Amino acid sequence: MRLLVTSALTAGMLLPALPAAADPVESGPWTSYSPTFTVQERGCGDVSDLTFTLTCSTDSGDQRAERRYATYSSGTRQFEGYFKISSLPGSRISLKQTFKTTGPFFMLAVERGGRLYAVHGGDTIATGATIGTTVRVNTVHVVGSVHRTYINGSLKHTVASESGSFYDKFGAYRTASGQGPATVEWSGIRFWRK
Q: Distance between CA atoms of 134 and 131, rounded to whole angstroms?
């Protein structure tokens, strides 16, 4: 065991391995579930399993590579995922969205240099999302009450939520003020509800 750890550190993999079954943030009880999803590729977007790429540098048009999960309209939902940006010549790329069926609700995006921010309002959520760094994202959504965003297990952003129908999306999506190229690798995707 010690030899394997030493070898991993020698190879430059300084981040901890993904837990086999991470505990959700916030107190439960939580029930794990697996919502269905569709893959969305538009413009120069390309999805290969959990790698999401925008291949062009255009600053216009619908450029997206995402997974869009099933719609929900009640209860409390939690998303967890880990992303690593492997390439970002562009900037202002949305990584995770909690979308209302009538339009955008919450969008977590990254700027070149590693600043994570809320697209609506522009609040800085965290820094350090640089090339090659693995970042854990959890969103907890209490429909009709509140939406909270955690980065690496720490609460970073809270916004009030209306009632309605919502869904989770993640991948790489050009924001209105952004442009590619970008490549983002996601892993450790989990969902819970209560």
A: 9
Which residue's entry shows tokens 């450029």? 63
Give the chain's mean pLDDT. Answer: 91
* Residue spans per domain, the chain: 33-193
User: Residue 30, Cα to own-chain centre: how many angstroms?
Assistant: 20
**Strands of the sheet with 116-118, listed across from one edge:** 37-42, 64-69, 166-179, 91-100, 103-110, 116-118, 124-126
Given a contact cutoff of 8 angstroms between Cβ atoms, the answer to whether 179 and 191 are in contact is: no
pLDDT in tens, 72-106: 999 999 999 999 999 999 999 999 999 999 999 99
pTM: 0.88
- The CATH code that applies to domain 33-193 is 2.60.120.200
Q: Where are the alpha helices (DSSP H) in the chain?
A: 2-10
